[in-house]
């Protein structure tokens, strides 16, 4: 069953389009990484799915319903993002109690254990926490709510490397204990790809790719060698990225549509073929130019 379905979704702010003709579905009990550069439209898309704002056109369904201002969707969805505000007078412990009364799957023991593990003082006010501690508290609420649809929008912002690592591990462990549909937006694909099942990559409001992490690792191949040999090899191919390498060399990334024999022929011509990580592929696909930053200096 699909928990989220978007068909031709567009969101316009003034004269600019934040989302353009976006169509995809997310299956129940899966962890999807929503990946895109700054301004790609991640927060806009997530807030529409969470029912906080309306798309300009197209159809969005969450638990088969229109999510905007929908009680069923809000009771079954938690949206953790950097702009969350809490009543200034309430302590962390009171905030957890309030959250517990709203979310029917709330796991108080998990919330308290995580609060203790991350050394957050239950009698402290949310306003007095540092940026990273606020993100940690928000993440605890997001995990303990155990909502059927759990959305984390760049949840690790401000967290140090150790806390980020612990968070991803806690997310995976709790997902195994209590499967649900999780969407995790991030710029740092290399940190999260181990826990993701699929990746939805967006660029300037449009879908670039939506596939499993495994398929993404096979999607492209890197070719390097003398410039002339690389250029003749890639002449008829779909080039994703190209840059100079060393004095007379070229490194290119192309769609991986080669047979083993084809790759062997390339090796015999002195070309080196290397895998392209999901992280690098996302970076190349969302780059403004095929030459990356080198283009500015050429
Ligand atoms: N309330 C708004 N009014 C006008 N334009 C907006 C508004 N919110 C977002 N935008 C524009 O929509 C586009 C997408 O923004 P959005 O915040 O969804 O991107 P994002 O992928 O979450 O970015 P980041 O990774 O930097 O957080 C941007 O061009 C942004 O300037």
**Helix tally?**
12
Tell me which CATH architecture of the largest domain applies here.
Answer: 3-Layer(aba) Sandwich
What are the distinct ligands in this entry? Answer: adenosine-5'-triphosphate
Query: What do the pLDDT scores average to?
Result: 92
Shape descriptor reads elongated
**Count of structural domains:** 2
Protein name: ABC transporter
Organism: Fictibacillus aquaticus
Pfam family, one: ABC_tran
GO molecular function, one term: ATP binding
Please describe what this structure looks like.
- There is one protein chain.
- The chain is of the alpha/beta class.
- The protein folds into 2 domains: 213 residues, Rossmann fold; 82 residues, 2-Layer Sandwich (Alpha-Beta Plaits).
- 35% of the residues lie in helices and 30% in strands.
- The protein contains 12 helices and 13 strands.
- The protein has a 6-stranded mixed sheet, with helices on both faces. Strands 11-12-10-13 form a 4-stranded antiparallel sheet, with helices on both faces. Strands 2-1-4 form a 3-stranded antiparallel sheet, covered by helices on one side.
- Helix 6 links the parallel strand 6 and strand 7.
- Helix 4 packs antiparallel against helix 5.
- It is elongated.
- The mean pLDDT is 92.
- Adenosine-5'-triphosphate binds next to strand 2 and helix 1.
Q: What descriptors fit this protein?
A:
single chain, elongated, 298 residues, 35% helix, ABC_Transporter_VariousFunc, alpha/beta, ATP hydrolysis activity, binds adenosine-5'-triphosphate, Rossmann fold, transport, ATP binding, 4-stranded antiparallel sheet, 6-stranded mixed sheet, Alpha-Beta Plaits, ATP-binding
């Amino acid at each position: 069953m699909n928990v989220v379905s978007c068909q031709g979704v567009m969101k316009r702010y003034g004269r600019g389009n934040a989302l353009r003709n976006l169509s995809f579905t997310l299956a129940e009990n899966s962890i999807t990484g929503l990946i895109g550069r700054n301004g790609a439209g991640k927060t806009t898309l997530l807030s529409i799915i969470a029912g906080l704002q309306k798309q300009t056109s197209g159809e969005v369904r969450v638990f088969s319903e229109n999510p905007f201002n929908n009680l069923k969707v809000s009771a079954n969805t938690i949206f953790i993002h950097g702009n969350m505000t809490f009543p200034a007078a309430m302590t962390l412990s009171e905030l957890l109690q309030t959250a517990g009364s709203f979310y029917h799957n709330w796991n108080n023991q998990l919330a308290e254990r995580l609060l203790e593990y991350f050394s957050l003082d239950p009698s402290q006010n949310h306003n007095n926490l540092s940026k990273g501690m606020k993100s940690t508290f928000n993440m605890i609420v997001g995990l303990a709510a155990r909502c059927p649809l759990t959305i984390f929008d760049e949840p690790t912002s401000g967290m140090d490397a150790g806390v980020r690592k612990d968070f991803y591990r806690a997310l995976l462990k709790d997902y195994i204990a209590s499967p649900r549909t999780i969407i995790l937006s991030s710029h740092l694909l290399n940190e999260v790809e181990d826990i993701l099942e699929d990746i939805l990559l967006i660029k300037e409001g449009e879908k670039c790719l939506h596939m499993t992490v495994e398929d993404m690792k096979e999607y492209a191949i890197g070719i390097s060698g003398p410039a002339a040999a690389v250029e003749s090899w890639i002449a008829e191919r779909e080039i994703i990225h190209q840059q100079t390498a060393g004095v007379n060399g070229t490194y290119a990334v192309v769609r991986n549509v080669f047979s083993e024999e084809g790759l062997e022929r390339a090796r015999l011509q002195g070309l080196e073929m290397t895998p392209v990580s999901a992280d690098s592929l996302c970076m190349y696909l969302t780059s403004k130019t095929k030459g990356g930053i080198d283009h500015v200096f050429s």
